[in-house]
Specification:
34% of the residues lie in helices and 23% in strands. It is α/β, with parallel strands linked by helices and 152 residues long. Strands 1, 2, 3, 4, 5, 6 and 7 form a seven-stranded mixed beta sheet that branches.
């Protein structure tokens, strides 16, 4: 079951410099349900919370503010493991981020378990679907953290 694999990976990455675990699946695959089952007070709806922080920031200044705001959101949580869901905001062109690299960087301060909407085929991790806004692909060599696929 994915929950057991997830718990095992969380334990293993806690000793690494970048402590990131990605739970990947298509919409409706159960990622959020699994993560909520794992979460207690350590659940973060990233798009909702970051959007609140960005509202007062002028649109042209948002790209420069997003990394610091993300770090602040992560650091404001005391728990050593943070469950992050709804990361769609990271893929918006107006925030001008490289989402996977940003998540890896943020995971240096605490373990992050992230719900990722897309697919992983063992060679490539994709966000969203071809032709949809924000679609991105990453080749296997671009990261060194566990990917746990959830099948529909």
């Amino acid at each position: 079951m994915a929950l057991e694999a997830l718990k095992q990976q969380i334990s293993e990455v806690s000793l690494r410099e970048e402590k990131l675990v990605i739970l990947v699946g298509r919409p409706g695959s159960g990622k959020s349900r699994i993560l909520r089952g794992l979460a207690h007070n350590n659940y973060l709806d990233l798009s909702k919370e970051l959007a609140k922080q960005l509202l007062p920031v002028p649109r042209e200044k948002r790209p420069a503010q997003v990394p610091a705001l993300l770090q602040e959101l992560i650091n404001s949580r005391e728990e050593p493991v943070l469950i992050i869901d709804n990361i769609e905001i990271l893929f918006l062109p107006e925030v001008d981020l490289e989402p996977l690299k940003m998540l890896a960087k943020l995971s240096r301060s605490k373990t992050l378990v992230v719900a990722w909407v897309g697919e992983y085929d063992g060679l490539q991790l994709s966000w969203s679907e071809p032709g949809r806004p924000g679609y991105k692909t990453y080749a296997t060599g671009e990261w060194d953290f566990p990917i746990i696929p959830i099948e529909n």
